[in-house]
Design a protein that fits this description.
Chain lengths: 566, 127, 429
Amino acid sequence: MTELWVKNACVIDPIRGINGEIMDIAIRDGRIVESVSDRADVIDAHRCLTLPGGIDSHTHVSGTKVNFGRYMSPEDMRAGRTKRRGKMHVTSGYYVPTTFGNSYRYSAMGYTTLLEGAMAPLEARHTHEEFTATPHQDMLANTLFDGNWAVMDAVREHDVRKAAAVVAWTLNAARGYAIKLTNPGGTEAWGWGDDLTSIHEQVPHFAVTPAEIITTLIQANELLRLPHSVHLHCNNLGKPGNYQTTLDTFELVPDLNPARQSLYATHVQFHAYGGGTWRNICSKAEEITRSINSKPQIVMDMGQIMFCRTMTMTADGPMEFNLHCLHHNKWSNHDVELETGSGIIPVTYSKKSAVNCIMWAIGLELALLTKSPWQCLLETDNPNGAPFVKYPEIIGLLMSKRYRDEECATLHAETEKRTSLWALERELDWHEIAVMTRAGQAKALGIASQGKGHLGIGAEADIAIYPIRTDMVDPAREYRKVVEGFQKTRYTIKRGRVVSRDGEIIVDGANATFWVNAKVPEDIRMENDKEFIRRFEQFYTVRMSNYPVQDLYLPRGRCIETEAML
Amino acid sequence: MRCILNTGRSVPQGTAVEHKLSDVYRSIASACFLNPVDLMILGIEDGDRVRVTTPAGYVILTARPAEGVARNECFVTIGPYANHIISSETQGTGMPDFKSQDADVEPTEEAVKSVGELMEAIGGVRP
Amino acid sequence: MIEQDVVCPFCGCLCDDLEIETDGARIVRVKNGCSLAEATFMNDTRLPAPIRRTEAGWEEISYDEAISETAEILREADRPLLYGWSSTHGETQSIGVHIAELIGAVIDNTSTVCHGPSILAIQEVGHPGCTLGQVKNRADVIIYWGCNPVEAHPRHMSRYTTFATGFFVPEAQRERTVIVVDTRRTDTTNIADEFVQIEHGGDYAVLSALRAIVRGKAHVIPASVAGVAKEQLVRIAEICKNAKFGAIFFGLGLTMSRGKYKNVRNAIELTDELSRHTKFVISPLRGHGNVYGSNEVFTWMTGYPFAVDFARGIAFYNPGETTAVDILRRGECDAALIVASDPGANFPRAAAAHLAKIPTVVIDPHVNATTALSRIHIPCTAAGIDAAGTAYRMDGIPIRLKKVIDRGYPDDAEILRKIYDRLDGGMGP
């Protein structure tokens, strides 16, 4: 039995409605309890800001394309490197760090749970191997279905139950957590070098549209009672004028689940562009947030960009090729048979570029114009918009109009004309930041019930104690202190153990991987479907029996079982 | 005769690759494939020995005719025989010139060494 | 007993449809595999026990003794080299990296003398590729450049390309155009619809010519480029541009001949150029069964796919300097640990010779040429035969190798774990 007592903590715990109370937290064997014995180790938080462990609900840290980002970028590996020291392994990289680099840096920032944004089921084993080497965070994997042949066949046949059964089988085989759609239909078209430009355009050879894929899978998701909703990277990412596609997509979304959203729209900054060319691109954040504010069934995340060199990596292969044709830098692409695509190129976001400045402003506008922080979560689509180590700066920008003004003064002159950021006075408070960085994620991902994202009795003791006295810092003026405070916790506690202190990792990690087993009735299980098996054996290049990820790839796997309503 | 020494994999080499000290492997890895016209010019026949010399040294191989090999090229499967005469220079890439080593090929009466003997020649001891 | 869907660990194709019949600890029959697979499973003769070289010759020693002596050799070394890794599974590779990190060693894998130059090219210009199933289901034009899959990857064409029935190419042989580029005629070139025979060292020029033609600059091309007639080049460029889906596979003919990584870069840039006309992809044909896995594991742990030097504490990468052949050529390392590979046979003589001058330990199921150069040889399981573990196919697909028999050998991961522990590795990998 191990016990820990955190006293004098200034707790913000939005899920439990606690906002800045000074309180003690008792922990036994990794969970939060009523009280502990007097033999418990004691941490005095000295009234510092204490939050549930941070949760990133959309980040790219593990798996085939992330590793390829490292593989092709020795220049980035040299940009951040540390020696083996104490309990820390060697790390390399700045915008695509090694797994240990990701894990240590997230931990130093108080993050204890990460959702990998995109995992191709065929390559799931790889993602899980890297999860094991990312020891200080619990991991979940979005599982890609955007170009899944069996799903598209079911959609064409208007067979929601079949689509649900394919999803259930695949999630189980891949040990995945949620349905991810990346440019639905577009990644299949990219198998021929094409893309789709509207949610009502048909996927070549499959006679289905992105809109049909999206709506069918939203329904299938609820039939399967998955903890998370469909997680969508909309079509037309990064194209001027794409906001209309985004709004059209939002209009498709029914409100099916009282406990959470029915659609999670990711990195919406990249989907909120007006205009028709790079010359007249402008912000449509107001239109997007007007839609979000009237649709509780949708949660989005920012997809904030920050000015730096970074790497774009996504399953959206055609988008990466278009970007490559603009940047003329190196380009990697990796399409995955019967499932999805992916692409990678390095980019530099520069203040000299009007487009980049407008993108930067749009991300902030989205966060400031969305009324409920529960509906706009903070992230950068790491590392696409910026590496996650930039989160504290984003927090600073959202909490301080002065900081924004100072930054805005350094931007390309066009930015003010084509965005509304200059006019936005709103400054987020500590509670809103807590929502946007952990509580909102826990709710959106459906893991609050697993004891994530809050500090209630029975919750997992994942806690971040930041060297910030909220009673003594005025974030609007002293935003530098806010940024610094969020960069490095005093203590990051993971499942009841202090894993990081002042940025130094002090123990071996022992993370868990959450995955979902949605049980469907015998008669519609894919393993009993002769046609599914026949097509699998004929068109995949691995045998169906060799496809599922074995349990040993998840040394601490945590299965969430659901009973499908089929 | 001036040649370019080319190396590569082959099915026989692959099937014997975990039996490097065997006679089978010796005969596969020490075969030097030459265009039949080159064999004629050298005045030798299938199975005769050739001495192949590069700046890195020389090795004795068994000449074999192969229609597909270009004139002035000799092909030897990857392995200790070819490597005996390939320079370890990599021009800053890590990769030696496994496929483009200039070599001299001439007939010889010398015998082909075993893999063990090649290893002994560089300080090894056969198990 | 008959086991289905067994994975062959030999080459980068990792065919996973073998049927293997066992009788106790013996494999008696292999079905579906190529002759390389058959030899891998059927002719698996091992060293019975660890051996040590002494003044008087070789003597058998216990595993314990072999392991502690190896740990001692590594502990004493100032500049150890850990090399190999491509014929074993990921767990072993992972512990290898941790040992290297712990003792400040150089760790390199066999891609250094295989597709290392391809990696250098990819680091310059990227890699537009795909999984093999994309090619199987879609490609109507296949190009094999500087490679000979009939000999090196015997089932590549039947499983993934030329002869494989694909969803959009139901009649593969009729619907696919196969182009083979090589300096010599081989069994692969005999299958080609177009055989492009180029002069030795002419790859770069021919690739440049094709790029120019694809860009619409055919008029600048002379009548013949590196022995290839202009009209053939123009014809091939047309075939490529008119393809619905084209796939280039390349081999050591590009990486090992003059120009090395620049040849590969040029081939990738041709693919990039063709991608502006139609769908085109390119991929290296990786040799060892899990060589791509060693690149993957090295990369997520250290940031670099091969040639990683921990002497400075941090991970340092500088191919040409930190690559195994160069370290050996310079006589720089003072101890070597060779795992699942045979540099004695596969490195140029001068590099291999240095292994005999320093304490070299081999951990490998089979006696090989390096054994003769080593101080200690520790036999172990062979991944995919009597040990299970992860391997990465040449296209990045991770596949679990199976354990089909038990021959009583320790897993190389277990041997390395013990070495790591004796070196006071402490924290878990």
